[in-house]
């Protein structure tokens, strides 16, 4: 499969009063059409900055991309586009859904108008034709009585409905890539499940690639084909969903999986991971996970581990695997 | 009414809540009826000594209001609350203050509940001195032992809240709540703002504190997986009412109310191979200020047996087995059963 989006050596740093924040360090991944890549990590892992970097929604300065960073959409490097070219791509070929649907919509415009606005920004069609398309889109994302609800203002809709509107806006120009940054986090469980189902359906229908960013391993298990686990600004493990959940290779991934309580069975004492995520201004030397790692070796605090292949399409950046499997 | 007016309590019942109601309303307008919101509507719940009872529900279910009523942080509109035999709603002034020593609350957002301009050590020390439990060096010594108990390094004593991580702040919140040796803790979403790895640490800590100190918990949460980990008993709320109640084991393994079943089926499981029984709730939530006369869940209920009675008559909690109650006329219907069999069959 040829990737539609390919990110290589992405490095995003910020210059702040507290020093350089190395939010994302040398991150690479690809997604193909019709595929869902999940990026999972805790707060401060760099997953959201990765998402924002893809759309170049990072202000420069204080933001700064490393010289080797490339973000290719169909072979075109987004980081080299002029702002005019960038505007053509954003919303049309690659679009984004955020965590808080309430704050992403304009409160004084009807939701229908906001869908129309996006459609008309990218294609020259009449207002009435755009409205017709907007209503159709709202129907597609499961808004009941769409012709009527299109005239609602955001405050008249529930959080779940607003997130559906956001998804309708994101899909209005049939993008090749949809980036979803914690789209279900602010929602109640039953609504969360509906939105996840909706994304699965829409992917089948539109065939776009999805980059789904979340802290929730449970939600991800339902929809990801492949998973990248981020810790302290780096991808530490990458593989198919079955590999990551079934045979995790990195001690951090293993720790996360044993730390999550499960609704389908009561666990004894949760294993958890000691300590907490380090600050982005001072990542630990060597492997950034070593201070919290239960299986650290002597070299772990000195040298940072290379990615090691531990299965077909499955890599983990950990010295435990290097001896036999250095690529 | 004096504080000693007592309904005969069973010795192991610490908190007995009966028919608790909290109503919010406006006076209406010139041409408009007043709008009444029953945030908590006729809820009865008993917490036994040493037990951890979880109150679960989605946003707007009334679970937080219920918790605050117990501590009289919100004044209930009706019903009774007895704590160790004492009528809590009859307490005034000094008596109420003395009583508050026995029950404490830990909030969801640890940064919002700590004074940003107060160092965390003194913040934990404050209640000890306010309640006259200890002074001077003795109170400092107590704080240090509390820090140790909740897993905080004593060096953090002179730090400000913003210098601490989320997990550390939640531990400070716990130390502060424990500083006056309460018997009962209301934990309002204590881990939902924390990262997964830290959440596990705090859950383990809560469990060990409960065992060591013989504490009783009311654990308010929306995350059913977290609740399963910590609760002995579970009570499920929907739009202000209790819809199901029973031991963790029975509620999770054999849910009776269709809302509980739907809630459990929607909870994500961190395993791509997990059998999933999906029950999709359709229909709109009724307006909380204008609930239908029948079952509040009727408009979204996936139960194929639902009928006219559900729309017109309100189901009361009824025992389905010992200690397991549900408020449904047609409880225990297996929903989405076919799905489960279909998705499991490849494994056989």
Written account of the structure:
The complex is a heterodimer of chains A (about 325) and B (about 350). With about 325 residues, chain A is of the alpha/beta class. Chain A is about 30% helix and about 25% strand. Chain A contains 12 helices and 13 strands. The longest helix of chain A has 18 residues. In chain B, strands 6-7-8-3-9-10-12-11 form an 8-stranded mixed beta sheet, with helices on both faces. Chain B has a 4-stranded antiparallel beta sheet with strand order 2-1-4-5. With about 350 residues, chain B is an alpha/beta fold. Chain B has 2 domains: about 170 residues, Rossmann fold (3-Layer(aba) Sandwich), CATH 3.40.50.300; about 90 residues, no CATH class. In chain B, a hairpin with a 2-residue loop joins β4 and β5. Classes of the chains: A alpha/beta (about 325), B alpha/beta (about 350).
Beta-strand residue fraction of chain A: 15-25%
Total domains of chain B, how many? Answer: 2
* Silhouette of chain A: globular
Largest sheet of chain B: 8 strands, mixed
The string of secondary-structure elements of chain B, in order, is: EEEHEEHEHHHEHEHEEHHHEEH
Distance separating the two termini of chain B: 66 Å
Strand-residue fraction of chain B?
A: 15-25%
In this structure, how is the largest beta sheet of chain A organized? 8 strands, mixed
Report the count of strand segments of chain A.
Answer: 13
Largest interface by residue count?
Answer: A-B, 46 and 44 residues
Whole-number average pLDDT of chain A?
89
CATH superfamily of the largest domain in chain B: P-loop containing nucleotide triphosphate hydrolases
- Taking strands numbered 1, 2, ... along the chain, how are they ordered across the largest sheet of chain B? 6-7-8-3-9-10-12-11
How widely separated are the two ends of chain A?
Answer: 22 Å
Structural class of chain A: alpha/beta
What is CATH's topology name of the largest domain in chain B? Rossmann fold
């Amino acid at each position: 499969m040829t990737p539609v989006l390919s990110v290589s050596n992405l490095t995003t740093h910020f210059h702040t009063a507290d020093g350089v924040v190395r939010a994302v360090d040398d991150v690479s991944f690809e997604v193909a059409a019709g595929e869902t890549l999940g990026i999972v990590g805790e707060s401060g892992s760099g997953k959201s900055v990765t998402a924002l970097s893809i759309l170049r929604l990072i202000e420069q300065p204080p933001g700064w991309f490393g010289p080797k960073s490339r973000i290719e959409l169909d072979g075109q490097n987004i980081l080299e586009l002029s702002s005019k070219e960038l505007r053509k791509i954003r919303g049309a070929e690659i679009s984004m859904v955020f965590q808080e649907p309430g704050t992403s919509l304009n409160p004084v415009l009807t939701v229908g108008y906001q869908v129309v606005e996006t459609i008309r920004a990218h294609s020259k069609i009449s207002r009435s034709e755009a409205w017709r398309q907007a209503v159709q889109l709202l129907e597609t994302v499961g808004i009941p009585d769409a012709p009527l609800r299109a005239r609602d203002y955001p405050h008249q809709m529930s959080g779940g409905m607003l997130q559906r509107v956001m998804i309708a806006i994101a899909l209005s120009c049939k993008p090749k890539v949809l980036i979803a940054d914690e789209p279900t986090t602010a929602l109640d469980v039953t609504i969360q499940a509906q939105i996840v189902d909706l994304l699965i359906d829409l992917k089948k229908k539109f065939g776009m690639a999805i980059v789904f960013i979340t802290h929730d391993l449970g939600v991800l298990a339902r929809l990801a084909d492949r998973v990248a686990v981020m810790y302290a600004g780096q991808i530490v493990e990458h593989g198919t969903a079955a590999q990551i959940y079934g045979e995790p290779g990195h001690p951090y991934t293993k720790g996360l999986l044993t730390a999550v309580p499960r609704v389908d069975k009561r666990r004894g004492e949760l294993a958890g991971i000691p300590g907490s995520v380090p600050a982005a201004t001072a990542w630990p030397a060597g492997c950034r996970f070593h201070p919290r790692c239960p299986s650290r070796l002597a070299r772990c605090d000195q040298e940072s581990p290379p990615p090691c292949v531990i299965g077909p399409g499955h890599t983990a950046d950990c010295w435990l695997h290097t001896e036999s499997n250095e690529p | 009414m004096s504080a000693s007016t007592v309904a005969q309590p069973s010795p192991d019942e610490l908190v007995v809540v009966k028919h608790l109601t909290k109503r919010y309303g406006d006076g209406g307008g010139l041409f408009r009826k007043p709008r009444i919101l029953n945030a908590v509507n006729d809820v009865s719940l008993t917490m036994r000594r040493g037990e951890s009872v979880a109150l679960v529900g989605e946003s707007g279910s009334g679970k937080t209001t219920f918790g605050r009523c117990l501590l009289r942080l919100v004044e209930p509109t009706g019903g009774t609350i007895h704590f160790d035999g004492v009528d809590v709603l009859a307490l005034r002034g000094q008596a109420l203050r003395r009583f508050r020593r026995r029950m404490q609350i830990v909030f969801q957002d640890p940064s919002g509940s700590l004074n940003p301009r107060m160092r965390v050590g003194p913040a934990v020390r404050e209640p000890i001195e306010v309640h006259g439990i200890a002074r001077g060096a003795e109170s400092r010594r107590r704080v240090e032992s509390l820090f140790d108990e909740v897993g905080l390094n004593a060096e953090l004593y002179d730090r400000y809240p913003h210098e601490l991580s989320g997990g550390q702040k939640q531990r400070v919140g716990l130390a502060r709540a424990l500083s006056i040796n309460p018997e009962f803790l209301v934990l309002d979403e204590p881990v939902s703002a924390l990262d997964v790895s830290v959440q596990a640490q705090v859950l383990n800590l809560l469990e060990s504190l409960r065992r060591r100190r013989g504490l009783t918990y009311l654990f308010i949460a929306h995350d059913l997986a977290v609740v399963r980990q910590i609760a002995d008993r579970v009570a499920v709320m929907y739009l202000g009412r209790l819809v199901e109640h029973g031991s963790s084991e029975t509620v999770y393994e054999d849910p009776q109310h269709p809302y509980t079943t739907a809630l459990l089926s929607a909870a994500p499981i961190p395993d791509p191979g997990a059998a999933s029984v999906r029950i999709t709730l359709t229909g709109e939530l009724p307006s909380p200020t204008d609930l239908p006369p029948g079952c509040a869940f009727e408009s979204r209920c996936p139960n194929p047996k639902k009928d006219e009675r559900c729309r017109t008559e309100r189901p009361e909690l009824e025992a389905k087995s010992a200690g397991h109650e549900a408020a449904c006329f047609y409880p225990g219907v297996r929903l989405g059963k076919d799905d489960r069999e279909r998705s499991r069959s490849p494994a056989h």
